[in-house]
From TrEMBL:
Protein name: Probable malate:quinone oxidoreductase
Keywords: FAD, Flavoprotein, Oxidoreductase, Tricarboxylic acid cycle
Pathway(s) it belongs to: Carbohydrate metabolism; tricarboxylic acid cycle; oxaloacetate from (S)-malate (quinone route): step 1/1
EC category: oxidoreductase
Cofactors, names only: FAD
Organism from which the protein derives: Hymenobacter montanus
EC number: 1.1.5.4
Length: 509
């Protein structure tokens, strides 16, 4: 072989994104907006994008802003309400809306109504203690500019005007209360993900590989990641080389992270929680409800199992869901394998797993109770929110799969977390997202953090800073202490996204 016949070295891609869900889509679009010369390759094991947790039917589509989710406003031992987490979640969602609004204005997301709609976010409780909690929560949240406009009522007639299905047939002797935020949103994250990938795919330097499963990693002294990838249609295996890798494989992230052998991955485990909904199939009932109504979670239940009676807008159609009912499956992905949980157990995480298990017996009891539920039990749960529900109007559907993070903890051995955890290597060449809550709503804030950690030098340049502020005008600033900025960015986002402070809701009624 002469020197001219030497095989050329395999190309090195700047960025590999594993998984075609909302997280990879957000990161890909963000990075390409910051540097259009970056080369990106996406590998997805399924034959479609957004077919796992990000699909509209697999998640609840709540634009999580802490307007209605009671787990973000815990009561302190002295009876006061802690709103710090609510402020953070609300701020993160404002960041997402600003980013999507910019993409609408710049062209990549031409039609915001294909993925986001206004729908009132409501909390509903009954019993004197819960009514008192909701009253205090409302008063506490009004101190924050992010919650201006939150309404509270204990008047059954007012609540019935807002949510007739929830009040019809209810015992009038039981005290009830509700809060209502007119500017809540329903987001079709599946549709959003598909729009983002459609835009990304059309960019120069972007490759897309559906039906390709990433199986293993190797890193040599040149610092380049080698990914072993199987083409699931042909069984062919190939090696892809990348400078930076994002593992956005949803429930499939943990097993992949373990294979990277980075020290930061040690001690993480995962606990799968599956979900089911009741989906309403009676158009007359669907037409009579116009809100996302969240209640208090049952004792021992994980926070993401808060029951909700949920108006959705999916593919141009109004829908109504109730749930989720939790369940247990050893799969990490809805389309995964029953051996996922067992294969994720390693020497480094067995201790945290056992400790977390021993410390969360309430959760174990709750999950067993949920798994053993009969159709009558499910109807009884539905009737707590819709007393005159007819079970014949509802059918059971399987929701997406979540993998809760279990972390090594010095004091307790292992703790079960209900949030998300970004794991990055010390040199910033690989990052992985574990956990699923609050989830897709906070994708933009999570990816902005990733960019600042893994691309720190470039993120600090005036060019990237200016572009970041152009896409997210509040970038680098807090909204919770800045009423003027909150009002300004909300107004801008809502105009671009055609969210109108409740006008859409009135028109649909
Ligand atoms: C029941 C339920 C309700 C929820 N409700 C809400 C809500 O109301 N609001 C909200 O904001 N969030 C909600 N979430 C969370 C939200 O859905 C997730 O946080 C989000 O969709 C995760 O996106 P992702 O891109 O990380 O993962 P996914 O959308 O799951 O995408 C991961 C992709 O990686 C692929 N993959 C896995 N392994 C490999 C591999 N080895 N090689 C190649 N590809 C691979 C998978 O096939 C999948 O397509 C909910 C989740 C569930 C389950």
């Amino acid at each position: 072989m002469t020197s001219t016949d030497q095989p050329s070295p395999k190309p090195v891609t700047d960025i590999v994104l594993i998984g075609a869900g909302i997280m990879s889509a957000t990161l890909g679009v963000l990075l390409k907006a910051l540097d259009s010369t970056l080369s990106i390759a996406v590998y997805e094991r399924l034959d479609a994008v957004a077919a796992e947790s990000s699909d509209a039917w697999n998640n609840a589509g709540t634009g999580h802003s802490a307007f209605c989710e009671l787990n973000y406003t815990p009561e302190r031992p002295d009876g006061s309400i802690d709103i710090s987490k609510a402020d953070k979640i609300a701020e993160q969602f404002e960041v997402s809306k600003q980013f999507w609004a910019s993409l609408v204005q710049e062209g990549p997301l031409p039609d915001p109504t294909s993925f986001i709609h206004t729908i009132p976010h409501m909390s509903f409780v009954w019993g004197a203690a819960n009514v008192e909690y909701l009253r205090k929560r409302h008063a506490a949240l009004l101190h924050s500019p992010l919650f201006q406009g939150l309404e509270f009522s204990e008047d059954p007639a007012q609540i019935a005007a807002w949510i007739p299905l929830v009040m019809e047939g209810r015992d009038p002797a039981t005290p009830v209360a509700a809060t209502r935020m007119a500017i809540g949103t329903d987001v079709n994250f599946g549709s959003l993900t598909r729009c983002l990938f459609k835009h990304l795919k059309a960019q120069p330097g972007v490759e897309f590989h559906l039906g390709h499963q990433v199986e293993d990693f190797q890193r040599k002294s040149d610092g380049i990641w080698r990914l072993k990838i199987e083409d699931l249609a042909t069984g062919d295996r190939r090696i892809a080389r990348a400078k930076f890798v994002f593992i956005g494989a949803g429930g499939g992230t943990l097993p992949l992270l373990e294979k990277t052998d980075i020290p930061e991955a040690s001690g993480f485990g995962g606990f799968p929680v599956s979900g089911q909904w009741l989906k309403c199939r009676n158009p007359a009932v669907i037409a009579r409800h116009e809100a996302k109504v969240y209640g208090k979670p049952a004792v021992g239940s994980p926070p993401m199992s808060m029951p909700h009676l949920d108006t959705r807008q999916i593919n141009g159609q109004k829908e109504l869901l109730f749930g989720p009912y939790a369940g247990f499956s050893t799969k990490f992905l809805k389309k995964g394998s029953y051996s996922d949980l067992f294969r994720s157990i390693e020497l480094g995480n067995i201790r945290p797993l056992l400790y977390a298990g021993a410390r969360n017996l309430g959760l174990t009891r709750y999950l067993i109770g949920q798994v053993l539920q009969s159709p009558e039990d499910r109807t009884a749960a539905l009737r707590e929110y819709y007393p005159s529900a007819n079970p014949d109007d509802w059918q059971l559907e399987v929701a997406g799969q979540r993998v809760q993070v279990i972390k090594k903890d010095k004091k307790q051995g292992g703790v079960l977390e209900f949030g998300t955890e970004m794991v990055t290597s010390a040199d910033g060449s690989i990052a992985a997202l574990l956990g699923a809550s609050p989830g897709a709503s906070t994708a933009v804030a999570i990816m902005l953090d990733l960019v600042q950690k893994c691309f720190a030098e470039r993120a600090a340049t005036p060019e990237w800073q200016a572009r970041l502020r152009q896409m997210v005008p509040s970038f680098g600033q807090r909204l919770a202490d800045n009423p003027a900025l909150t009002a300004e960015v909300r107004e801008r986002s809502h105009q671009a996204l055609r969210l109108d402070g409740g006008q859409q809701t009135k028109e649909r009624q």
